[in-house]
Amino acid sequence: MSYRKEKVLTTKELADVLRNANVAYPGDHTEEDLRNLFLEILQSGVHGLCFSLYEDGQGPGDLISEEQVRRRMEIIRPFTQWVRSFSCIEGNEFIPKVAKEMGIKTLVGAWLGDDPEKNEQEIEALIELAHKGLVDIAVVGNEVLYRKDLTEAELLAQIDRVKKQLPPGIPVGYVDAYYEFSHRPAITAACDVILCNCYPFWEGCPFEYSLGHMHQMYHQALAAAQGKKVIITETGWPSQGEALKGSMPSVLSAMKYFINTQLWASDENVEVFYFSSFDESWKVGTEGEVGAYWGIWDKSEKLKFANEYL
Q: Is the separation of the CB atoms in 247 and 205 below 8 Å?
């Protein structure tokens, strides 16, 4: 099914076309069609957003004020039910505090690395935030096995410690690439909830196959989950930067990927935290130029996918 370029679809018509397609975003639709659907999906509210803490010139290790967190949270507040944070210190502790004040649920992460002293600070801060009633899901580490910062035994010990010290009723999990939960059954068994990152872009997948590839990623984690809930804690597509094999960044593809992800998640009842809320320039240092362009809003807190971007 296709439409002439001059035809502007209703958002419902375009959503129905996309849902009935076999590949990610087929057809010949106008940018106005896409923009209207993007805005309707965003304004209707998504399940979750990964919270981007740092302004231009800031990065991990900087102390961030509660005022800055509050300003950015106000921007995303109307559009999301949950926020995900990645650390519990250096200003990140304000994220769940402010989110809870605004009626937003929290997936709160302790960042673990190869520094035992910092790890101790993160774990203690996570436990403290949970006892203050600020944590809905607790996360012990993000891709720490992928980076090889900790051994599996060290991570299991930290997960066990947090589970024993948290108030009852708070699920505890660990975030990593979807395939790690197939390869590491002990980690999967230790988690109350399976928290997986699914990035077709980082696997060099051409955009037109990205939705199908993400579906496969999710179902691989689901198969390993032993009946536990699986949440996609990160997925997204960059709007600018270097290509990776068949993966090409662009504003249009980033908007289409957001649309496809949200429609699929709604139809399949999958909980997704979209990466990310704002562009963050510091990520150029770890991921190359493309790392700085994953936001729905740009680094100046301006919503992308508006006329001046397309």
A: yes
Q: Which two tokens stand for residue 214?
A: 């993400």
- Cα separation of 250 and 243, whole Å? 10
> Are the C-beta atoms of 305 and 252 separated by less than 8 Å?
no
For 151-166, give the DSSP string: -HHHHHHHHHHHHHHS
pLDDT digits (tens, 9 = 90+) for 98-108: 999 999 999 99
CATH T-level assignment (fold) for domain 14-53+78-292: TIM Barrel (3.20.20)
User: CA 145, 149, 154: angle at the middle one, nearest 5?
Assistant: 75
| Amino acid (1-letter code) at residue 291 | G
Q: Does the structure show a pLDDT above 60 at 1?
A: no
Q: What is the DSSP string of 224-283?
A: HSTT--EEEEE----SSS--BTTB---HHHHHHHHHHHHHHHHHHT-EEEES-SB--GGG
Which 8-state DSSP code applies to residue 209?
A: G
Q: Residue 88: which of 142, 45, 36, 48 has the closest Cα?
A: 142
DSSP secondary structure letters along 14-53: HHHHHHT-SSSS-S---HHHHHHHHHHHHHH-EEEEE---
Give the pLDDT confidence of 243-252 residue by residue, as tens digits: 999 999 999 9
